[in-house]
Amino acid sequence: MLNIEKTLQSIRDLLDRLGKEGVEFALVESEYSDYVADIRNPNKVYVFLECSIRPNGTFVWRDYDHHKGVCDFDEFRVRIITLTANKYLDKAKDKRKKWASLCDGTDTPMPESLAVTVSDMENKANRLKALLEPDDPPLLDGRDIAILKELKPYGVVKPAEESQRLRELGVLERRYYIDQVFDALTDKGEKALEFASHVERTKRRTS
Question: In the chain, fewer beta carbons within 10 Å around the N or the C end?
Fold first, then answer.
């Protein structure tokens, strides 16, 4: 089987799985000769500004936070699941924030219909994240990337709270050698930095 055939079958299976969680991405024939297929966002969930598959089986994407990248299917699987889950969490957080604003910050319970909507969004995000494999790396932000890149051999991330947070994220581990205590990248941390190296910051479009 050709690489592109394997990729298309893999992405169809993944999109079918996401569809079972109520997230309906669409795989369509690309309008551009450079690409084999495009992936369209679910209704009102804006994950990718652009997303296409090249003839060699790699994915070319651009998101709404001014990032773009090229990656293989394994990385794209992590990216589409994580970004989509985060979008639902952001939508839920935004609705909670708007309700609090309407109530002038008072602790007023949301109407049942709104509470159900918010709960459904949060539950959907959690179900999506459950699709990730245990060894899948997180998608790092710029600050975390800088911290991990600047970590020297036998060094310790400071402050301690940052070290603890990154260890809980699974990208860092505390090691001991004789009388030394230091932080080191885990395999997941190495993979997270590899994924991050495939991403570029894009210029904001001006009107």
Answer: C
pTM to 2 decimal places: 0.91
- List of residues 6+ apart from 8 with CB closer than 8 A: 27, 36, 37, 53
H-state helical runs in the chain:
3-20, 73-102, 112-129, 142-150, 160-169, 187-196
* Residues 49-77 pLDDT 10s: 999 999 999 999 999 999 999 999 999 99
Q: 3-state class of 61 per DSSP?
A: strand
Q: What confidence category does residue 206 fall into, taking pLDDT thresholds of 50, 70 and 90?
A: very low
Q: How far apart are CA 198 and CA 70, in angstroms?
A: 6
Is 37 in a helix, a strand, or coil?
strand
**pLDDT exceeds cutoff 80 at 203:** no
Average pLDDT of the chain to the nearest whole number = 94
Asked if residue 40 lies in contact with residue 52, where contact means CB atoms within 8 angstroms, the answer is no
Domain positions in the chain: 1-135, 142-200
- State the number of CA atoms in the 13 A half-sphere of 147 facing the CB: 24
Task: Kindly list the distances between the CA atom of residue 42 and the CA atoms of 49, 74, 87, 166, in Å, as whole numbers in the listed order.
Answer: 12, 21, 11, 32
